[in-house]
Amino acid sequence: MATTTPLETQVKLGKLPAVTDERTLALARYLDPATLPLPPVTLDLAGAVRDWPMYGNDRIGDCTCAAAAHMIEAWTGASRGQPVEVTEHAVLSAFDRVKMLDPLTGQEGARGLDVLKFWRTTGIGGHRIGAFVRVPLRDHVLARTGAWLFGGLYVGLQLPLTVQQQEVWDWTHRLDGPARPGSWGGHAVDVVGYDADTLTVVTWGRLKQMTWSFWDHYGDEAYCVLSRDFLARGVAPNGFDLAALERDLALVTGEA
Predict the structure, then answer these.
(1) Which end of the chain is more exposed for a tag (fewer CB within 10 A), N or C?
(2) d(CA 122, CA 78)
């Protein structure tokens, strides 16, 4: 999966700091290690996609909603061979429903958790998700497993200024000055692949790679998103207890 020369100074961010909700379900609860195979060593969910729209993220801080639309494109491309491209109007409409002012910058942005809740209850571009579950950032096996089973990950990052000069986002072995987490700002991306050394994400209309070390030091939230756009005929992968997840979801949301 190729990357292109970065244009990071010409784009916007827009993800507000991660928030927690004690009702958010955790991925590990629904995995059965006895029946679940190990995730593959490499994963590529972007092969069928030729174009990743910018979705206005060069003008406004709607990365949280653009990342959701990119996930829909990756899911439909991987499961059907024909990616479905959500319109920019749909992305901007969703952003209008969840946006708020960042108290630190005065700029408009959104919280990842708010976008996921809106995506589940209302939908983006006619696509609703069934659920989302939290993935622990430091557990690389679980992160790979979630990406493999459900078609990528929805991820929040606190970007340092150092990435503006990096072809591959990497930790510089410092966390101060321009390497401080969030020194540039918060950003949302979706994971569409990985290998032993890097993860591949979609951001600003193109593919970008980050090292696992960068993920460890600058990630502040990650979610596995369950959608029928990716699950073939609604069947859960072997070793994942979808029925238990649906029961727990009904308990925390009050839905029968």
Answers:
(1) C
(2) 24
